[in-house]
Design a protein that fits this description.
Blueprint lengths: L1 E2 L16 E5 L6 H5 L4 E2 L11 E7 L8 E6 L5 E8 L4 E7 H6 L1 E2 L3 E6 L6 E11 L10 E3 L1 H36 L2 H20 L2 H5 L5 H26 L8 H23 L4 H28 L5 H22 L7 H4 L1 H43 L9 H8 L2 E12 L2 H27 L5 E4 L4 E7 L6 H10 L10 E10 L2 H20 L5 E5 L2 H4 L1
Parallel strand pairs: 15-16
Antiparallel strand pairs: 1-3, 2-4, 4-10, 5-9, 5-11, 6-7, 6-10, 8-9, 12-14, 12-15, 13-14
Length: 542
């Protein structure tokens, strides 16, 4: 314990953080007695080890003149009273309850109390803090500033928070538009996270108190914890949807669910019960936050072992937020010192995260698009295989009938059948016979116009359908077949039967096929290697 009032030299510069010492409030303590140095203040013990309650805090000696303001970090307190001692012995005071503290908030969640300008210099500042929860300390970030420094700090913080808010709104709009188009689940989780971070920035900056002047400062802090907790849970949901499902398989998925559940309960507990037990609910919240961050390690390890395609982007985007979040939690527990920028590090880390995560989301969408394109190509290939004769590459019977039945207008059906194909197989073997079928199929494709459909509908039987007004010359097909070279120079001919009629219904197909088949039989009976044609009776045409 040290007794403070000696006029010790102090090289305090404008805007520097003032060293402060604290003592538990006792009956009979008055500002004059405390300024007179008749009470011992603790300047050594870390504030984080002190219990909650009522305290007095006193600054080191200063010597400042001109228009001034006293600033302190916004903490969980029921009331804070400022006392300023001037060289002429005057003590100026101002008391702020929770609503008053909210109305005196500057950007960065700094409570600022302006002092009247006096001819005598300011020597020392005293604070009476009532009902502190001591979640971050008794009194933090004490400074004496002039109006220019106050305005400059607000402008700086406005730039930082405004830029972050604009970034969040842009990313939110962008990803919601992408979600409407693509419907990827991780985009919704990302949007929930960004929305929570936007609300967190609004509350942690103090801008919420500007927009809602009647809001109690402790209630603003509760909103701050609530939005940060929601952001942490949404971030885990985003990670779970972002990585491949195998990364969160088994025990790790259950562990992540439990960690997010604990974080959710701790967040709701603080939001509801902090007015009754601020210290306990804060500690529960902090440990739950650390537990959730602790699960990130096994997740990244699993992703590395499974060679996740998205590990590099995730580490790049989330390395800084996870590290700074842990440091902030350690500061809350008193394991490392408090600093204004560490306390506001979420803004910087989440700016980095939001920027890099947007790149990660774009990368993820690109990978998913590639996977979808590959799957679509495979699906198309499978459909082609299902519709195509594997030997000749022509349509098979099922696909051919699907295409031709239902055509409007008169259609011409040609049925082509290789002559004495059994003898061909016996002469050159089945492999040679298969090659003959391929050559015949190629001849048919090259001999008909693009409008015609060609299919293999049986062993050595082929069918061609085209509109009746499209010219197909069957004899030219036979001539090309005769002129073509077959395997082993075997001579191969074919017979063709044609018929013209409607093809609107399946019954029409049966009639048209029977008609063309009779014409084919006539060609075979007439000596093969020729064409015969027929027409359906008028009752079918009608």
């Amino acid at each position: 314990m040290l007794t403070l009032f000696a006029s010790a030299a102090h090289a305090e510069r404008p805007g520097d953080t003032l060293p402060v010492c604290v003592t538990r409030a006792q009956t009979g303590m008055t500002p004059l007695r405390l300024f007179a140095g008749k009470t011992a203040f603790d300047c050594v013990s870390p504030q984080s080890v002190l219990p909650g309650g009522d305290y007095w805090a006193i600054s080191s000696p200063v010597h400042r003149t001109g228009p001034l303001a006293i600033q302190v970090a916004s903490l969980w307190q029921k009331r804070i009273t400022f006392y300023a001692l001037y060289a002429d012995g005057t003590v100026v005071s101002a008391s702020l309850d929770q609503h008053g503290a909210a109305r005196h908030l500057q950007l960065g969640a700094i409570i600022e109390q302006s002092l009247p300008e006096r001819n005598a210099p300011l020597l020392r500042v005293l604070w009476h803090i009532e009902g502190t929860g001591n979640m971050r300390g008794i009194l933090r970030g004490a400074r004496i500033v002039n109006p220019q420094q106050s305005v400059g700090a607000n402008l700086k913080m406005a730039g930082l928070y405004g830029g972050f808010a604009g970034l969040c709104i842009a990313l939110l709009t962008y990803n919601l538009a992408l979600w409407v188009a693509l419907r990827y689940r991780f985009q919704l989780a990302y949007c929930a996270m960004v929305t929570a971070l936007l609300l967190y920035a609004l509350s942690s900056s103090g801008a919420l108190a500007w927009a809602w002047p009647d809001l109690a400062n402790n209630d603003r802090i509760r909103i701050n914890y609530l939005t940060l907790g929601i952001a942490a849970v949404a971030a885990f949901a985003f990670a779970r949807a972002f990585f491949e499902p195998r990364v969160f398989g088994g025990y790790l998925g259950r562990l992540a669910t439990v960690a997010s559940g604990i974080m959710t309960v701790a967040t709701l507990a603080f939001a509801v019960f902090a007015p009754v037990a601020p210290y306990l609910t804060d500690r529960a919240y902090t440990y739950a936050f650390l537990a959730q961050m602790g699960v990130a390690g096994p997740i990244l390890w699993r992703a590395w072992r499974l060679r996740s395609d998205y590990l590099g982007m995730f580490v790049l985007a989330w390395g800084a937020p996870i590290t700074l979040a842990c440091l902030r939690a350690f500061s809350s527990l008193g394991l490392i010192g408090w600093s204004f920028w560490l306390d506001n590090s979420t803004l910087a880390s989440m700016t980095i995260e939001a920027l890099l995560s947007s790149i990660a989301v774009a990368y993820r969408i690109r990978m998913l698009s590639r996977e979808r394109d590959v799957a679509r190509e495979r699906e198309i290939a499978a459909l082609l295989l299902a519709d195509t004769d594997s030997l000749t590459g022509l349509l098979n019977r099922r696909a051919f009938l699907t295409e031709v039945i239902g055509r409007s207008g008169e259609q011409t059906l040609l049925i082509a059948d290789l002559d004495h194909f059994k003898r061909v197989n016996e002469t050159i073997g089945h492999d040679g016979g298969d090659e003959v079928l391929r050559v015949f199929a190629r001849t048919l494709r090259e001999s008909v116009p693009p409008e015609a459909l060609v299919a293999r509908i049986g062993g050595e039987e082929f069918a061609i359908v085209a509109p009746a007004d499209v010219l197909i010359e069957p004899r030219a097909i036979l001539e090309k077949l005769r002129a073509g070279r077959m395997p082993y120079d075997v001579t191969v001919t074919a017979s063709i039967g044609t018929c013209t009629g409607p093809l609107l219904r399946e019954v029409d197909w049966k009639a048209l096929y029977a008609c063309a088949d009779r014409a084919l039989f006539e060609a075979k009976s007439a000596g093969r290697d020729r064409v015969r044609g027929r027409h359906l009776p008028d009752r079918w045409a009608a």
